[in-house]
Every structure is written in structure tokens, then in C-alpha cells.
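Bench log, entry 3. Co-assembly request; chain sequences pasted below exactly as received.
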Amino acid sequence: MSGSVPYRNPGWAGNTGEFQLSEAQVRGDDFVGTRPLAGGHASGSASYPYMLEEKRPDAPLFEGPYQDRLDKILTRYPDKRAALLPVLNLAQEVRGHVSPETMDRVAELLELPRAYVRGVTTFYTMYNKRPVGRFLIQVCTNISCNLCGADDVMEAFLRYANTEPGETSAEGDFTVVEAECLAGCGFPTCVQINSRYYENVQPLDVPKICERLRARGR
Amino acid sequence: MAESSPAETVTLTIDGRQVTVPRGTTLLQAAERVGTRVPHYCYHPGLSAPAMCRLCLVEIEKAPKLVPSCITQAADGQVVHTQSEEPLAMRRGVLEFYLQNHPLDCPICDQSGECKLQDYAHAEGRVHGRGREPKRVFGRDDFGGDVVFYGDRCVMCTRCVRFMNEIEQDPRLTVVERGDRSIIDTFFEEGLEGTHYHGNIVDICPVGALLSKDFLFKQRAWDLDHTPSVCPGCSQGCNIELHTRDNLVQRLRPRVNLDVNGHWMCDHGRLDYEWINRGDRVEVPLVGDGREARATGWRAALTSLLERLDGAGPVRAVVSPRLANEDLGAVRALVDALGGGEIVYRSRRAPAEVPLKGFPKLARRRDLEPNVNAARLLGMERVGGDDGTGGLAPFAAHGGVLIVAGDELADQPPDFGERARLYVYLGQHPTAAASRAHFVLPITNFAEQEGSFTNHEHRVQRFWPALEPPGAARPGWLVLGALLAERAGEAAPTRAEVAFERIGAFEGLTYERVGTGGAPIGEDRALPAEAAGGRA
Amino acid sequence: MAYPYASDREVRVISEYFGDPEARTLDGAKRRGRYKGLEKALSMSPDDVVEVVKASGLRGRGGAGFPTGLKWSFMPKNYDRPHYLCCNADESEPGTFKDRELMRWDPHQLIEACLLASYAIRARHAYIYCRGEFFETNQVLAKAVEEAYADGIIGADVMGSGHEIDVTVHVGAGAYICGEETGLMNSLEGRRGEPRTKPPFPAAAGVFGMPTTVNNVETLCAAPHIVAHGAEWYRQWGSEKSPGTKLFCVSGHVNKPGNYELALGFPLIELIEDVCGGMRDGNALKAVIPGGSSVAIMDADEARRCALDYEGVAACGSMLGCASVIVMDETTDIVKQVRRMAAFYAHESCGQCTPCREGTSWVTKILRRIEEGRGTEEDLDTLIELTTQMVGTTICVLSDSVAPPVQSSISKFRDEYLALIRRGERVGAA
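Structure output for the full assembly:
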């Protein structure tokens, strides 16, 4: 990385000196993360998933507020098949990944063939086919970020987590993967950690970001 | 183009030849009319066409780019080139991509010799590949049932997935992953076990990705002889081919007949062929006194039989519904000539039909024998249980002329027929229950003779000899026909066709009319569908 | 305002409230003039709305540049069957980051646009197909939709007009190919996001087998402004064939990367030198990708004379695409970046069509080998032939997208390839 780029508050794009906004204003904290588990208005019930730190691979699916959200999702499509992606999102939100058992349950719920559900699940990269750490760190290494040093950022995350791409760190905190363009090209390097975007990330920022994460909820 | 034309047909030019086809015909089908087979993988006439293999691209003059001929409908005035420079170059390119990760393990691949990748690459591909990169490895997977999957050979045409979705309608197969990681799989360990038509995915796989475990490493495809035939597995009468080598049936494959089985057949029928290859055969006529038998020639045997036929008392006969129409007709004629008598057959029946949901004309029928309907048409009656045994008590103890044709009598004791004044056993296999027979005459099975079956909807369908009969075995109709003719002083039938035409029940039909696709007998002679109850 | 950098060269129509958090709320949005265009549209007939958009010359901003009004006019002109509007917010073309900004700063602009377009094409349900990764953005949008429902803007009686239109925020699950309109429809139906063969075209049989129009977020966002102010007003910017304004997503080696809304036809070099504050560290310009990763790379000379509209970029041998300007300075390792783009296509290929499934990964492997110093000169010919074989042979154009970056880089930066091949040297490998 070039040394002349001014150091910015790590993790979000806004404090550029052109005009001042707080991180909360940029992210829209009044809006983000406040949606109820039950889904709020049906129109947005499929706008999830939350990617939660706590993974409960054996938790029951579609109970309590999640049942409500499921019911709302089903009202928004002319057939049950169309609800498959939102329902898989919901299942992953609860369990952290989509296991064969989860696929089976979803297939039964939506009256779809099990093999079909597997075919759809494996088509999409956001469904974790195996368990991931508390924090799924997706580093964009595509061209725009790559031009600005994304490979070094990836390397820095791997070094901090002391793990290999796609693997989970020893304490189960971090899974670091290379991601395709996250559409944050103007704010390189763009990193998605669980649900949240971290922008303008430089290798130097990595330990600070990770320490903050690791401290959470422990 | 003349879209609004009300005509039922369209006329176009393909490779310089004009052809008129029904409206709605695809370019690929139209090309076949002029003798051009456009290469294709994903298209199969019995399935939907996703147009994803990109191999059937052809050029239409004035069209902006090449079109997939499998889904493009022929239109009036089109000028189509399948062999011009552009489509050939394009197909050469596409074929190169097919070979990029293909293991090229033809020497150990069952499909070799009947592989569309071999054929197309040889016909239209590059002489030398340019791939220098390491190949992707998927390995092998047991799909359960009779199917084993070689992932590396797969061309991702998804015919198998679509067969299970659209035709069998038990969607066990899917494409998992995406891009160059995509592969055909089932739901983890679920497999194909318990499905009844999965053998068809092996047939429609254009390459060696899906193979039959039964056939695995058994024969090379180019060594097999193909003979058109009819499946003897049930009364559906699926049109099949017998693939034979070394005078053995090596496998069965469906033969297209859109009126009967489409492109398909069931696994029960497909895998039930070992009995045809049985080595324990009666090979020469045996003439005995009810205790001891000696081998003899046909002339001696039949002459001797003819002498004893008349005056031996009332006649009773047991036949097998695996015998051909011609054989059953000859038994009927013989019994009638001897003054008439009861003829019965025994047959296995399944508790339920197994329909093919996406092609409802086809079902594995309840009757598990191919020719029960001919037997019924000829006034023969079903006895015994649904396992094909029992029901023969009055026959075992019959005191007059007892004729058994084709039924192996496996459940009957050695003293079967001991009271008969004349016991004639025409069969394929030596059996204890024939030990008291005065005549044991070797006859052929359906794979060894020409003949026909009558299926569940009274459609007569022909089959052809695929195997050499063992020893002196001859078709039942030939043996009995000779006997009857000699007795009546007529000319004996020497061809199955003649034997067929002598059967009153099939009057009006000829072999020519039946052809290779079969023909229904007249409405007036057909029996109501469900009258096939048995007498225990 | 602008975000994160401002420039007075911009013409801000749809990006006016970037960096203005109050625009996210319904009250704030209304005070800023949102829903005025919709109100006017509802007082017109659907066909008149289509005519205005047609007259404005608005072209699809998702990459293909198809005239939007014309697309809308393909929809059946009756209510016999349900019609659907799909807003394509599955933004994932490398270098493109405009839709995310449009949705998170000004969600009501998009909602208004969806309602307006739905009205024009006689749809009763609009699905906004958002990228699954846009968690934060989707939350902003979902809350805005909820507010609009509560206010009676969306629902059984849109703004008191008697028309019923629903809006649903739908999220994908990570697949670039779902940004292709037929792939999007398959995905929305709960299938693998594999593109469909056309015909049938979406306007005849689209999502759920019903007449459907798929429009990009940016395209839709322009529509309310056009209806509110008229087609001629929109034509004051840009050229005859490329009227209006366009968001340019500038990324890479410039001092001020970001989204800049400019009149079409803006000179590329001024965008870099003036609007974006010049090249990072004062380095020399080496190459520009003007329209996202699927278009041809321009060298510095071409970039200097290029005007940013559909025709101007085409004249320089590339495509405007979705106007994602990726700027590369002299330190850039072109081979590595081309390989990275090829790897992207290999990862995102749906796998249906063989040329794409096998070709994208093959090309990537060859590029990787060259990058590692194990290439040959014949490999360059092979790359050009392979990518040529991948053009026009597949259902969608993902496969075609590999050819421009690979072929243009080989023709314009052949020396870099040869240096790697001959000496294993790499530019900028310090």
C-alpha cells in the first residue's frame, strides 16, 4: 500500500475530510439491526438474514418469532417454492449454517424434493455448507480492492486469525474467506464481517478490528 | 417469416436440401429428415430441452448469431446450414471445452464405442487438444440401484436430472454446486434405491458418466449384436433390443415405440434376463416309457409321438405365458385336433402396477408374464397363485393325454403325470416333473426364435431370434406345426409368419402389418381388460 | 451533498441526497420532493407514462443500455394476468457500487420508482431483488418500505389512486449470475439462478410464468424525475443517443474514488484528473476499465480521448457497461488483475453451458500459469482463441464477458505477458 493515503477511522467510509458524518449516520444505525426477529411488516420479512455470532446448529427451526416471520414470508410469493431462498436464509440465521438436516426440514416444509433443495443451496455462496466461526470474515479481493492492496488485507486477517482460507481459527472465533466483489469498490478494501460491511480496511486496521470483535460477548 | 400462415407445414432449406415439416418441428428434427444428425447432448426427444449443451448450434441465414437447433422451430423460407464454416468452427470450439477436463479413459470406460463424446470429437473435434492444465477430479459415486456415477466423464447435459424430474417424477437427482464445480448428485446418501425406472438414465447418458453396475466391465459395446425384441418382463410389452455376445444376452435396452414404452423401460424388466442364458437345457428329443428316456432325432421322436396321439383319451394341457403367440396357437390347434380339452396357464402377478408417471402409457403391469393376453384370447385359463405356482392338481393326476408346453413345473413333484396315458413335455429345461414324460421335446425361448407377443392392450408385437438355440431345440410352433401337418396331411409351417397367420384369433393381422412397431388386434376380438382372475 | 467526496462538476439528479441521512426517513424524503413524480404519474395513463420515459431516451443502466421505455412498452396492455416488476438490485459487477448507495441513502427514491414503473407496466407486485450481502442496505430499504406501507403510499390504494401495488424486498444469497435478468427470475422463483433461454422473453413469460419487466435500480431511480420534469428536461444532459445523467463508480488508483453523477458524454480524463482529484501518489495512468470487469481495458491514450457515453466508449473499443470506471496506475500488474477477473467469472459461472463452465476455469488456469512464470507465447494465442470460442455460444453473456478483458489486455499489454513468459518478471511485484 502506498503510504500517502491518509489514515482513516478503520472500518467505514465517510471521514474523508470533504464533509463530516458520524459512522452511525453513514451506516444508518437507526435502521440497521433494529428489525424484529418476527420480521416486521411482511414486505420486509424476506430482507434478512441477520448473521449472528451465536451459532446454534441444533436449534429448532421456525419456532416463536421465526414461525411468524416464516408465515409472513409465505404471504409474499405466489408459490411455496419462491420462499425457498428466504427460508434458507432464516434457517441459516438460526443455525449458522445449512446442514443436510436443515435442507431436509426446509424441503419438507416447502413441499420440495430434498435433492432439489440441496441443488439450490449449493448454488449460492452465502449458504454456509459447514459450520463457520463466530465471525465470518469475507475479504473482497476482486479487482478494485485488489488494486488497493486487498491481498495484503486478506493476508493480515489470516495471520491474525492464524488460520487458512475457509478454515476456522482454533478458538472458533474467525473464519476468513476470500469473497468476490462486495460492491464497495470505492472504499477499498471492503470486508464483510457477519452482517456488517467494513470499508477502507488496510492491513494495519486488521488487528484493531479483530480485537474489538473478539472482545464482544466474551 | 410467414408467422401468420395458417398452413400446418413449413418448408425450409437445410444444407441445400428443401424439406417440408409440420409446424412446430425443431431445426434439429427437421435436419434429421434430410439425413443430418446435428450433434447434441442435452436434447433428448423424450425430455424437455434446456439448450445448454451448446453443441447443436446451427447457422440460419440472416440471423444475427448461431441458434441452438434443438429449441429453434423451423419456419417457412429459412435457409439453415449445419455444416458450414461458422457452426463447424463453433462446435469444434465447444467440443474442445468438453474435453478439457474429460479424463480420456476410453480404454476402461464401458461407454466406449457408443459414446457421443467419442463420436462427435472424432467427427468434428480438433485433431489435437491444447489442454496443458491439470484436470479436475470428481471421482466415482455409487448412486444406489443399478447405477454408478463417474463424475469426471460427465458432460453436465442434465438428461438424467430431467428424466428423474419429468418422467419418473421422483426427483432424486440434482445439480449441486455451480460453475466448473457442478456435479450431478442425489440428496447426500439418499441415492436411487427404491425407484423403478432409473436404468433409463444409464441409457440416455450420452457418455460414460452413468453406468449400469450389472453391465460394468462386462463387454465392449462394439462386440455386442443388437436384435429387436419385446421385453418378457410383464404384459406391457416394452419394445427392446437384446444385446448379445457369445450366444448370451448381455443386457436389454429399450427400443423407441411411442405407442407402448416411449424411450423407456423399467428396471424389473431390464435386469430380469439371466434366465434366458440358463445352461441347463434340454438339447435333444427324449423318448421314454415313463421310467427311462433315451435321446433320439426329431423325425423318430415325432413319428413315434404321432403314432400314440390318437385314442389316448381326453386331452389336457398346461402352457407357459412366456411362449409366443405362434406357440400358444399351435398348442390350441393340437388340443382342438385331438377333440378339445382344457388348457391352462400359470403366471406370476404383482400386487400393484408401477406406472411411469411422466409417460403414463408405460407401467410395469401386474401380470409379470409377457403373453397372458394371448393365452386368454386363445381360451386358456389361468390357474394357481400369484407366485405362478400351484393349481395343477387335476393335471398331475390326469389319465388321458397330458401336454405341457413351456411351463417348467418347478413346483411339481417327480410323479407329475404318472397316470397319463400319454405325457408330452415340450420345454427348455430338464425338470424332475418331466421324468414320467413319454416325450421330452426341446423347444426354444423367445430370444432364440422368431415370434410375437400380445400385450396388455392386445397389441401384437414381433421379436426376432438373437441367439442360436441349444442343440436340437426348435420353436414350439415348428414342432407342433410339423406334428399337426403330418397328422392332417398338410404342408407344415416353416416360417413363424405362416404359423401366426394360421391362428384364428389374429385373423386380419400379418407380420407385415405388425412390422417392427406392433399392431393392435381388431377391437371385436379384444377381451375386456380385467378378466384375468385365476383359479386356485 | 455527495458521498464520500463532492465535486461541483456533477449533475446530481438521482444522487442528490447521498450523504444526507435525513433523506432515509419518509418525512425527510417527502420534504425533498420524493413521491411527486409518482403522484404525477398516477394522474396519467400507464401508456402515457411509458411514452414519457420513451421520449426521454433513458437507457438501461445495468450494463446493456437497452431503451427503458421500449422495454416497458413490450408488456401486455391489459390486466388479464398478474404482471411483475423486478428491480434488479443484485449489484455485483466488479467495480460497481452505485445501487448500494442509491438504496442506502435514498430508499424512497427507489420505492417511488418501483411504484411508478409498476403502474406503467400494470404490475401489482414489485420485487426488489437485493444482494444478500447488502445486509445493512437491505435493512434501510425494508424499513423505508414499511414506512411507505404505513403511510398508504404502497398497498391496496397507492397514494389514494385506487391502484393496488405491493412491494417486497427479496434478498439473494450470493450469486453474480442472478444479476442477469432471467437468472434473477429463476432465483426469485426459488430455483438455481441459472439463466433461461430466450424466447420466451420476460415480457411474455417472466417470473412465475407471467409478464415481467426487470430494471436496474439506477434506471428505475431516474424515471420519477423524468416523469416529474418531462422528457425534454432529461435530454438537456448527454447526447442524442445517450441522454441524461449517469452515476460513474470510480475505483482504483485515484485520490477520491466514489460515485459521481455526470452528464453522459463527460470526458473520462477529466473525471480522473479533476473530479476524482487525480491519480494516487501522482503516478502515471496506465489503463482504465470504463464499464466494469466485463469490458475491454483501455490504455492511457485511449482513456485520454474517451468521452463517457455509450457511443463514445464504444468508439474507443470498449463499452460503457454500467459505467464502473476502474483506474489503474503504472504500478499495476495487468496480468494479475486480468487473472483475478477471469477467476471471478470462473467462480460465478452457473455451469449450465459448457463453453462457460469449462472455458472460464481453463482461461483462469492458463493465466495463473503465465503469472507464475510457466507460460509460453502460444498460451497467448490459445487464450485469444479460447475466449473467442466462448463468445456467442452460450445462453447468457457471462461467458462473453471474459473475452474483452483478456483479449484487450493481451493486445495492449502484450509486453507484460511476454516479460512474465520470458523472464518470469512481474510489474509492480516489489
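Residues 531-536 of chain B have pLDDT under 50 and may be disordered. The first strand of chain B starts at residue 9 and ends at 14.
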